[in-house]
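re: ur msg from earlier - yeah i can do the nicotinamide-adenine-dinucleotide complex, just paste it... oh wait u already did. ok heres what im feeding in:
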Amino acid sequence: MPEKIKNFINGQWVDATGGKTFESRNPADYRDVIGIVPDSDEKDVNAAVKAARAAYPIWSAIPAPKRGEILYRAAEILAKRKQELGECVTREMGKVIAEGLGDVQEAIDISYYMAGEGRRLSGETVPSELANKDAKSVRVPIGVFGLITPWNFPIAIPSWKITPALIAGNTVVFKPAEETPVCATRFVEILEEAGLLPGVVNLVHGFGETAGEPMVRHPGVDAVAFTGSNEVGSRLAGICGTLQKHFMMETGGKNPIIIMDDADLNLAVEGALWGGFGTTGQRCTAASRLIVHQRIYDQFVKAFSKRAEDLVMGNGLDQRVQMGPVVSFAQQEKVLSYIEIGKREGAKLILGGKLYRRGKAALGTFIEPTIFVDVKPSMRIAKEEIFGPVVSILRVKNLHEAIKVANDVSFGLSAAIYSQNVNHTAIAERDLDVGLIYINASTIGAEVQLPFGGTKRTGLGPRDAGGRGGALDFYTKWKVIYRDFSGTLQKAQIDN
Ligand code: NAD
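and the outut:
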């Protein structure tokens, strides 16, 4: 029997007021209905925002270290339930179990990290230009945050947004992806169990247009954090700009790995395989472009395609499986249409390109690992985010051309270089226009203690994760306090 999922509003688990529902299904086997989920609308959003507003003065008045203790408890519960939650991620989203567990581990990491930030929400004290006067800045919360997340990291991404919002003293209305509502519910249950007061985190399930957008537009929502597609992100940024709300939009990527002729080739092949086909290519940091030096091009293509061909596909709950399905029929269609575009553009398909329907895989949304070679930088498959198991390989003459090709897209999230030459890696480090650079490692592997996000169309506003310079700069605002204890009227800029 599928589980009946509820919204969580003001500490109560409730159905959508309109009574409508939708299903969450397992992409590895569409017969498996995991949850029956509330299809919420504006009325549910209104109730959630009302609860978050009422809870705000209470929650923000609790000392930050005490708020941190609740996040610490949440981290402990997550760690205890890691296996079960990892299986939930795999069943609902399709990534293989090792990655499902990794998804949960990110939530554990950031919950511990943000718990610690409760004792480090520091500002600055600086000298005043006048005697008997001091000056400081302090971080204060902003109010009610509307949080919208995608399906590809169903527990990790919600945790990246909810934990910094909470430690800073804000309250939250959370609209998770419609593809992964059960995982989102598990995470909110854990926050409840950890001791959150009613109304501090409210969960509203549903679709973007009917639940997400009313939340963004709601006058009771002060700020919006979104991760998802570029199209939706830029639309929501427009709305937030007009309504003068703070916003953070983390969107797509077209991430390159540069492989130089002096690279450790085996290492580069492994990194490219992990970057290109890990999470079935459905990571914002997926390595969808391999930019390979002409001197080792043929050798690399041969070794890489052999490894890709051998990837074991299937239901990710099976430990032997190395690549799961894409998340939905809609995603499957989108990826297949890009494969057709690549063929029409004249790129050479050397592996895959079709649905994978062997045995039980016919019950899910599988696509073969797909490789195009002789891809030109101007082709759409080299420029647009596909978000599936499709890798484009481009040939370059030297490092200069490699960096030019790497930067020649409208995204700028993650990039990697494989080279044994320190000068090459230093130049790449300086000249790649992205938010995350990996040297002799794949485009995947961010850690929570540093800011996560990108340049150009990948990111608008501050970054996820990290503390100062990262998430805390988004989830707090500055207040500056001058204290004059001279007992006389002192005038800055005038008395000295
Ligand atoms: P999506 O934009 O379709 O959906 C993301 C979320 O937005 C969902 O919760 C959806 O319901 C909601 N939404 C859709 N339309 C909306 C609207 N009009 N108003 C309000 N909310 C709306 O994206 P997706 O397919 O779920 O996720 C894949 C995308 O996410 C990829 O482009 C990927 O690169 C990106 N992503 C980016 C990062 C990053 O940190 N940069 C991380 C992970 C995923």
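cool cool. The two ends are 76 Å apart (CA to CA). ping me if u need the other ligands too
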